């Protein structure tokens, strides 16, 4: 089954990471790809809840940081599991973290909806391969 990744969502409090992902998207991917950026998990969950009825606004892929203020990545995943059954679109979630801690990597496997774990910084090739792998 092939899934088109047209909308990418970055949930990360690091403004440098926002800049890097924007640059990579503009450089490596076709211009019709959309990018949503949220600075914490609470903003991301709120967006998903408020736009659930419009599948064109729901991202196809979320890159999620683990360490953020207000609502971290773990809390986001817990909330996502609660709202997932009501979402009108199946979203692919990848952790994008600066942590290479084996305990963090193992813990993500507890979340059924997490498809993989990437460490920062993500390269242009990694992003391109990820966007084209579905």
Provide a compact summary of the structure:
The protein is of the alpha/beta class and about 130 residues long. The chain is built from 5 helices and 5 strands, in the order E-H-E-H-E-H-E-H-E-H.
Describe the structure.
The modification 4-aspartylphosphate is found at residue 65. Keywords: Phosphoprotein. Residues 7-134 form the Response regulatory domain. With 134 residues, the chain is α/β, with parallel strands linked by helices. It has one domain: Response regulator (Rossmann fold, 3-Layer(aba) Sandwich). 38% of the residues lie in helices and 19% in strands. The protein has a five-stranded parallel β-sheet with strand order 2-1-3-4-5. Helix 1 (15-28) packs across helix 5 (124-132) and helix 2 (41-50) runs parallel beside helix 3.
Oligomerization status of the protein chains: single chain
Count of helical stretches: 5
CATH architecture: 3-Layer(aba) Sandwich
Mean pLDDT across the residues is 88
| Domain unit count | 1
Distance between the termini: 8 Å
What is the helix content? 25-40%
List low-confidence stretches.
none
CATH class: Alpha Beta
What proportion of the residues form beta strands (DSSP E)?
15-25%
Annotated CATH topology: Rossmann fold
What is the makeup of the main sheet? 5 strands, parallel
Structural class: alpha/beta
Shape descriptor reads globular
Strand order of the largest sheet: 2-1-3-4-5
- CATH homologous superfamily designation: Response regulator
Radius of gyration, CA atoms, in whole angstroms = 14 Å
How many DSSP E strands?
Answer: 5
Series of H and E elements:
EHEHEHEHEH
Keywords: Phosphoprotein
Protein name: Response regulator
InterPro entries: CheY-like_superfamily, Sig_transdc_resp-reg_receiver, TCS_response_regulator
Domain Response regulatory: 7-134
